[in-house]
Amino acid sequence: MKARTLQEDHEEFIRAIKEFAVPSAPAKSHAPRKEADSQVILQELRRLRLQQLLAVLHVTWVVFRPIVLLGVLGESFPARAPGSRGKENAAGSSVSSEVMTNHLVAAESCLDVFLVYISLLGDDGSFPEISFNTCGVFGKRMKSIMDLCSFEHFRYSPTFWLLNGDMHTMLPVLVRPMKSPTSDFLRVRLKLSEDSDQPLDIAIPSKAAASTVKSSKLLLLILAGVGGDSRQAYISDLCKRAAEEGHLCAVIVSKGFLSDEVDSVKRIFSPCDFDSLEKTVNITCKSAQSASLKVMSVGFSMGAIMWLTYHGKKKSPENMIGCISVGSAMKMDFSMVGRYPRIIQPALVTELVSDIMAKYGHEILRLVGKEPEGQDGVKKFCRSRTFADLHKNLLSKIGKSDEQNLWFWMEKQEPHRWRNKISIPTLIFNAKDDPMHVMEQCGFEKETPSNPNVAYFLTQAGGHIGW
Questions:
Q1: pLDDT for 214-245, tens place per residue?
Q2: Minimal CA–CA distance to 438: which of 359, 331, 350?
Q3: What structural domains and CATH numbers belong to the chain?
Q4: pTM of the prediction?
Q5: Which residues does UniProt assign to the signal peptide (predicted)?
Q6: Is cis: bond before 128, omega within 30 of 0?
Q7: How far from 11 is each of 47, 204, 301, CA to CA, in Å?
Q8: Largest CA distance in the chain
Q9: Strand partners of residue 220
Q10: Are 324 and 296 in contact (CB under 8 A)?
C-alpha cells in the first residue's frame, strides 16, 4: 500500500470533521448598548491597560532582579588599596547598620542564583529524573515505550546565563512576543449540542511539508495554558515542527477568549467543563479515524492539568493512544499561595479581564450591575488580580462555577484523585525549578508510580515550559 502524504491525510481529516461543524460562527447578539455604559467600559479598559503595563514591569523586575542584585553586591564591597586596612578602622565604625542589613538581604537573595549557576556548570547525573512502573502488562508496555524513546541518554543543557526558573519561564516571553505564529490554521466550530459548540483550530502544513513529508498517521490534539490558543508562539511552533515530522495538529481553543468570541459571557470556556471536552475529543477522534489516524493528547500548564483529569475521569476513544502533559500539577494549591498569585497571576488575569470587558462589557454591566453592590461589582471585577478574584467577582456569578466555594471549584480540576484511573500511556514532563507549578505539586513518584500507565520525566532546569 502506497504511503500517504501529509497533505492527503490533512484533507481527509478536514472533510470528515466538517461534517460535525456548524455552518458558521454564531451571531454575536450581545446585550443592548447604552452610551453611558460605553463610557464606563472605555474608562475601565484604560485602567486595565495601565494595570497590564505595571504587571509586566513587575514581572520584568523579577526576571532581572538576580542580575541587578549581583551588580549591587559587587559595588557594595569595593576592593581595598594595599596598606589601607589601618586607615579604615575609624571609617569602619561609622558604617551604619542599615547598610549592613542591605548587604545581607542582597546576599541572601543572590545565594540561590549562585547555587543554580554552579549546578549548571557541571554534568549533573541526576537529570533528567525518570520514573515509571514496569510491573504487569501495562508496566511492560510503558517500559517498551520509554526504551524506544531512549530518554536515559537525554541531557538538557540550558542557556548558561538563565540563572533560575524565573528567567527560563519569563525571559523568552518578554523577548519574543507570545503571539508570533509560525503556522496557519483553519478554524471550525464543532457542534456539541443544540446550544453548545467548540472552536477547534486545525494546523495547515506548509506547502513544502504537505507535499513531500509522508504522514505519520498521528494527530496531536493540543490544549494550551490559561487563556491560550493557536496564536501562542509555543503552540504555533509545536504545530510547525510536528508537520515537519509528518504529524497533524488540532488545537482546542478556549471558547470566548482572545481570538474567539461568543454571543454571551455565560458561554465562555470553563476549566471544569469535562463533558464538553469529552464531546470534542469524541468528534475529533471519530474524524481522525476516517483517515486512519491515531490521536495523542498534548497539554501545556492548565491544558496539561485538564488532560490528566480528563483521562482519569473519562474513557478515551480507542484510537487515542497516549498523552503528554507538559508543566502540569496534580493539585491546585499552587494557584493560591506563593509566587504564582503574587507575581504571575496579575499579568495573566488582567489580560483575561481586559479581553472579557472589551467583548462582553455591556453584558457584564447588566449582569454584575444588578448585584447589591451595583457599579462597585463591575469595578471589583475589573480590579481582579488572581484566579481567586476572577472566580469571586465573575465566574461564580455567571454560572461557570456550580460551587460558590473556591476550593470546591478548584478540586473539580485536580488530577490527583484520578491519577490511578488513567488508562492510556501518559508522560508527565516537568522541570524541577518550575516557579509556578512547583516540584511538590507535580505529583512526582520517585520510586514506583502507583499507575503503570503514568511515567515522569523531570529536568533539572527549564522553568515553566521554558526549555
A1: 888 999 999 998 877 888 888 988 999 999 99
A2: 331
A3: 6-24+123-332+413-459 (3.40.50.1820), 339-406 (no CATH)
A4: 0.82
A5: none
A6: yes
A7: 46, 10, 30
A8: 91
A9: 249, 296
A10: yes
